DNA sequence: ATAATAAAAGAGTTTTTTATCTTTTGTTTA
DNA sequence: TAAACAAAAGATAAAAAACTCTTTTATTAT
């Protein structure tokens, strides 16, 4: 469905949203172990997300990753688009570039609906909201 | 969404269903150009599908690929499961192995519905049916 | 100032996926 | 039975994705 990179990114963002609260920060080591991902790999991914200002960080003692007000409202859809691009949301199910409304592949219309449902769902999955919901029920981010 | 291999496989199966009719057969060259895929690559994929009896073939002059009665009823879901496995239909959206009904990830329930819709859609997309529908409207399998 | 800490950056390596090329085997028809 | 044809099989090669290691830079606290 999504690339491994993208899965790690979503998990890491949720983990940060959950654990870096009230000015506190989380380090890569904690993130990596918290979401069960390779440490250096998730570090790279977070660097990317940082450059795009989707996550904030500070160096040095007590440093780590956290989310500012804007970042905490980011949706999983945004993360997916950033990492995997939007081919998931716009691409053809059979991989046809020319597939479109006027030039549909055999399963174009059915796929369109599913893609749209997925997009809506991921757009609604904003980090702050997920964390709030998870407070009610126990949560799991380990693979 | 699906691997390239899987996309080619689906396109090739549809193409064969469409073009190998009334005992005629289609060769890899025609298939490759018909679905715009690398010739040797789709040949390999069809070999795999052939071993699993999802497509029939014969060598020599006038040889090529075709579908027997059973194969022509195969669904795209079957093709996807054969090539990409069933992680698409059963796996967690965040890539968590332990995600389940009793141990759900933050987006488990929403994803479950989408996966189910996708599965239903692909199960209904049987080759014979797709070809019938395509006869009504023009079709495109080139990328 | 200096030592410790932690992310950023850069430079690989490994594995998987995608794609190509060559040889072999089986089938048909002339 | 020989030549042509077409898929099967096997072996490589190229590209992308996943992952690792080392060095640098910025920050904090002593």
Main sheet overview of chain A: 2 strands, antiparallel
N→C terminal distance of chain A: 16 Å
Return Rg of chain A in Å.
17 Å
Stretches of chain A where pLDDT is under 50 for at least 5 consecutive residues are none
What oligomeric state do these chains adopt?
Answer: homodimer
Give the helix tally of chain A. Answer: 7
What does it look like?
The structure is a homodimer of 143-residue chains. Chain A has 143 residues and is mainly alpha-helical. The first copy, chain A, contains seven helices and two strands; from the N terminus they run αααββαααα. Chain A has helices at residues 4-19, 28-35, 39-51, 76-84, 87-90, 108-124, 127-136; strands at 56-58, 64-66. In chain A, strands 1-2 form a two-stranded antiparallel sheet. In chain A, a hairpin with a 5-residue loop joins strand 1 and strand 2. The radius of gyration of chain A is 17 Å and the shape is elongated. The two termini of chain A are 16 Å apart. The relative contact order of chain A is 0.16. Chain A binds chain B through residues 1-2, 4, 7-8, 10-11, 14, 76, 88, 91, 93-99, 103-107, 110-111, 113-114, 117-118, 121-122, 125, 130, 133-134, 137, 139-143, and chain B through 1-2, 4, 7-8, 10-11, 14, 76, 88, 91, 93-99, 103-107, 110-111, 113-114, 117-118, 121-122, 125, 130, 133-134, 137, 139-143. Chain A binds a DNA duplex (30 and 30 nucleotides) through residues 3-5, 27-29, 38-41, 43-44, 46-47, 50-51, 57-65.
């Amino acid at each position: 469905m999504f690339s491994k990179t993208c899965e790690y990114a979503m998990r890491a963002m949720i983990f940060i949203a959950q654990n870096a609260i009230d000015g506190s920060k989380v380090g890569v080591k904690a993130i990596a172990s918290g979401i069960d991902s390779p440490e250096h790999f998730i570090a790279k991914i977070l660097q990317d997300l940082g450059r795009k200002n989707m996550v904030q960080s500070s160096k040095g003692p007590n440093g780590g990753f956290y989310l500012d007000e804007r970042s905490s409202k980011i949706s999983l859809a945004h993360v997916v688009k950033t990492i995997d691009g939007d081919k998931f949301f716009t691409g053809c199910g059979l991989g046809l570039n020319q597939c479109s409304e006027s030039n549909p592949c055999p399963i174009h219309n059915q796929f369109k609906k599913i893609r749209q449902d997925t997009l809506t769902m991921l757009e609604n999955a904003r980090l702050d909201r997920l964390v709030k919901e998870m407070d009610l029920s126990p949560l799991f981010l380990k693979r």
